[in-house]
Amino acid sequence: MRLAPLERADLVRCAELEKILFPGEDPWSVQAFQFELENGNFYLGAHVEPAGLVGYAGMSELGSPGHMECEIHTIGVDPGFQGQGIGRAMLVALLDRADTMNAPVFLEVRTDNVPAISLYKKHGFEQIGLRRRYYQPSGADAYTMARPGVTQ
């Protein structure tokens, strides 16, 4: 598996995976991913040969030097490749980047997504809030989770 910055050529596949991974929700479009890249957010793709792009992850970096915080926007892995450590590897890459800025990291996760919640807890996240009906159109609730900044 190879992690690399997400490129425009990856965006159609990202949108395809969104539809598979988030049925009953409002999956991100090619344009949504393009907007994220154009606005300088940090996005990675996970590539496995010969399958190609099998996962993506991204976060925003907010603030000014010395006062940064990060927000993970998404992590998605093709169902055929889940359970192989790809999501964990992408999360670690995002956290490593945040750690270079000593930035706390925030995210939202569905309250029923036990595997993701477990992964986040293993990497230092704690639940700090609950957002009712956060995901639309399903109305699913989300936990807000946070991890403090880590100085490297």
UniProtKB/TrEMBL annotation:
Record Pfam families: Acetyltransf_1
Keyword field: Acyltransferase, Cytoplasm, Transferase
Enzyme kind, highest EC tier: transferase
Reactions it catalyzes: N-terminal L-alanyl-[ribosomal protein bS18] + acetyl-CoA = N-terminal N(alpha)-acetyl-L-alanyl-[ribosomal protein bS18] + CoA + H(+)
Compartments where located: Cytoplasm
Molecular function terms from GO: protein-N-terminal-alanine acetyltransferase activity
InterPro entries for the chain: AcTrfase_RimI/Ard1 (IPR006464), Acyl_CoA_acyltransferase (IPR016181), GNAT_dom (IPR000182), YpeA/RimI_acetyltransf (IPR050680)
EC number per UniProt: 2.3.1.266
PROSITE patterns membership: GNAT
Top-level taxon in the UniProt lineage: Bacteria
Keyword ATP-binding part of the UniProt annotation: no
Record domain N-acetyltransferase: where: 1-150
Stretches assigned to coiled coil: none
Role noted for this protein: Acetylates the N-terminal alanine of ribosomal protein bS18.
Family indicated by similarity: Belongs to the acetyltransferase family. RimI subfamily.
UniProt protein name: [Ribosomal protein bS18]-alanine N-acetyltransferase
Organism in which the protein naturally occurs: Kibdelosporangium banguiense
Lineage: Bacteria, Bacillati, Actinomycetota, Actinomycetes, Pseudonocardiales
